[in-house]
Amino acid sequence: MEKIQLKNINKQMKRKDILQNINLDIHGSLGLLGPNGAGKTTLMKIITTLIQPDSGTIQSENLNWENTKEVRKNIGYLPQHFSMYKNITVRECLNHLGNLKGISMHNRSKDILTTAENVNLIDVLDTKIKNLSGGMLRRVGIAQAILGNPKLLIVDEPTVGLDIEERVRFRRLLRKLGRDRHIIISTHIVEDIETTCDSICILKDGKVLQTGSKSDLLDLVRGKVVEDMVDLNDTYLESLRLISTREAGNQYKIRYFSDSVNQNNIVEPALEDAYLYLMKEEDTNDRR
Amino acid sequence: MIYRIYQSTIFTSKLALRTWLFPIFFICLNSYIIYTFYIYRFQTFSPPSALTTSSYFVIFGMLAYLLFGMWIIRVEKSTSMSDLTLLIDNGYLFGFLSKVLVGIITILTSQIILMASYIAIFYGHPITDVPYYLAVFKYITVFWSISFFISFLLGMLLASVIKGKSVYPVLLLVFCFLIPINHVFLESANRVLNFDLDSWLNLGEPNPYSVYHAFYGFSIDYFHWMKKLLFLSIIFLLFIFLFIKKKIIHLGKPTYIVLLLFVIVFSFSAIEITKKNQILVNDPTRIIDYYRNNEQALLMDDQAIRLDDFDIFLKPNAHLEADVTFTITNEGREELNSLHFALFHELKISELHSNGIALNYVQDGDFVTVELNNAIESGEKIDISMHYEGLKTNLYFGNNQAIYLPHYFPWLPSTNLKPAFDLVTDQKGLHRIKPSYQEETNYRLTINYDKKVYTNLNKQAEGTWSGKSSSGLSVISGMLNENSQENYQWIYPVTWEQSVEDFSTFETYFRMFYNTITNSLDLNIEKPNRVFFIPNLNISDTLNGESVWVNGSDLILGTPIYIEPDQDYFDIFQAELTYELVPALTTNKLNTDMDDYEFQALFNIVFAKVINKQMNINDDTDTLKFFISEKLTVDQDVNTVVKELKDFLSKKEAEDANHPLYQEWLHLIESKKSWDELYALIKQFNNREVSPNGKDPA
């Protein structure tokens, strides 16, 4: 599937600007990163065609988003809080959605097996939904989304509520699924994107703060992240732009942004640093 | 597409079955009604009551299906299915259609189970008539299945538009408005609106407190089908608008076609139910109220005109429509510039012309005055054609379910310038005034009807009858069956098969009665050999002599509509029958004045009592005592008659039906004599000796 272009997308809800002038190119796997209320879910729903933007266009080379019928054929969607009828089995759930998607009876059985294998659900196909763990249920969500092999997979907050082990597994799965299709992952957890996405878009208050590859974002803060050992009583701490604080023996290891080029303790930045940097910069701009 | 909906339907059915709650409710609901069938078969035998007394079943069923409809939407909304199906091309729509199909399948399954149970329990015990079972099927369809389906759809609709728990009070409100006992909630609204909102909204049995009308059949009138169609079309239109708003369906050719289809159904059903329809409604005081509020002052004189050569074309559809042409002869000496007829006020004339020229007319109550363009000279004849339609009373019918247009009801123009009913006696009871027919009249009747039609004319071809009658024309059809034996034919409601098995008891009784009355009163009356055994009295009928009528060889043997005769009916009610049969053979055929009723009724009741005694029928009815104490309008004249009569009746000779007093008393009635003359007559017999054989020694 070709690149998807979002141009000047605006959306208001209850007279509040939810999205403002969003311009974005989607190719490969894209992570939508932002705090709660940034407008990620609204943007996702606009891309899925579940809601319409007030203005702006979305299109790829062969597809115009005004033709929702065609667009929907190419979209797989995992909603933020995925849940399913409790008294049906995984197979029945996938079979029902496959049927509604118009997958023929013959291809559906094969498709369900392939999908279940892909998302590692083969052993629980005949287990009722109510007996699945949170991670398993999320896999069912992904399985239903990729049934019919859509060209664009949209995943909203995929790891919320999962334990650490499940999160790691799920991220690996998303990475795998993103190899032969576009995938948009909306999250406020930076690690979700770090391992799964080629490009990242950071949203705040309905605006795009930054888009680019992971290294583009890291470049933003390269040479600006400093680590130091301090006493918590040190008065100068208040003037620092802190990223994190960790206990280390009698002292604390702090991580912060510094614009001074003469720092000795400059470290290699992480994606979370870039994200926080942009958030703080935006806050500073807002205060001004 | 069909396969996708089919597969989705199977999935939704599984989902519903696995709740356990709905399957258990389904089983309980159907078991309850099957148990009701059992009760009406083996404990109180009344096959139709098994359906008409099922309001509780309908109430619980409607609630269950409202909740089922709500659940089937809510269960999806509680998952991610709503969002997911919206993203699939037609996914939401197919899901919706599959849910509707699940509702239909559940309701149809219930209908099949109930219909099969009904047939298994009642068929051949002793009803075997296919039309009756077809009516049962229609009843179950219109008042149970479609009502449940509407409830189911409303549950779906409410759950689709109302979020959260606020759907429950709305659901309860809708439920209260639509159930058969909704008048409990809507009575005050009725008063404010001056409109029967409750009966309009009621989706169940339209007469939840009344009994089955054995002659008319179930009240599966055309109106009820149209009403249900209207409800369904409104609900589906609301769904379509909702889907357009939610962009589940898009405006395009297919949507416009479906929308147009439902708009057509909506318009058609709305127009149809606003038309005049005759519906079997539980409204026993309708006629009484009319005559109480519309005292009919007779402002016109009797005319010496004769009506003959009636050509009648009846169209009994949603209500009675009639095209009637007849010839009028001026038999008086003076020319006539206007004509006066009697015609029942519910039959509204819409066209009236003579030889193609429209005439002005005024219809006032039960009277019609026609202004002639040219006067009719003495001896001159003119043809009058009129089109009239209507009829709403529950006493007479002329629609596609039943026809009851007896000779004693002015459904044809008549020269008898009296209203169709009068309120008589102290209790203001409903009294039918028979139109008078002085001479033999020619009739030609045409009806296209799907049930067998009985008339007192001769059948000429399919749907056409003709002949002469000097006592009027009767047209009868309905949920009737017939049987015959020797010289008798008897016609009766199909559900009364068991009761008329004992017809020979009636035949023996009637033969004896006929011989006694004709000999005693020296009557020259043809012995009826065709008996209509039908319910023709309203619950508000309290007077004697209103149920049984004789028209040539036809005897209409009426009962109140609430009677469900049992097997011993003819045995048990012989004493009461005599009180109805006596006026039928004596005074009902007379052209009497409106205020003659009490004068005649006293004779009829006294003579019936005497006949019962003579026929050794156990008469513990107290009818005479009750009539004198409760109904007779007492004044000085009447008081003296009653006193004298009591003296006479205390004598042994009074028990003889051949006593000359009775014959002379009837002559007094026929010659329109007064209470004074009756007093003199009774006194005369009280004062003289009579020989033991009852003959006057003089």
Automatic annotation (TrEMBL), chain A:
Keyword tags: ATP-binding, Nucleotide-binding, Transport
Domain ABC transporter: 4-230
Gene3D superfamilies, sorted: P-loop containing nucleotide triphosphate hydrolases
Example GO molecular function: ATP binding
Pfam family, one: ABC_tran
Family statement drawn from the similarity comment of this UniProt entry: Belongs to the ABC transporter superfamily.
Name this polypeptide is given: ATP-binding cassette domain-containing protein
Species per Swiss-Prot/TrEMBL record: Aquibacillus rhizosphaerae
TrEMBL record, chain B:
Coiled coil: none
Entry keyword Transcription: no
Transmembrane stretches, start-end: 20-40, 55-75, 96-124, 136-159, 166-186, 225-244, 256-274
UniProtKB keywords: Membrane, Transmembrane, Transmembrane helix
Protein name: ABC transporter permease
Lineage, opening ranks: Bacteria, Bacillati, Bacillota, Bacilli, Bacillales
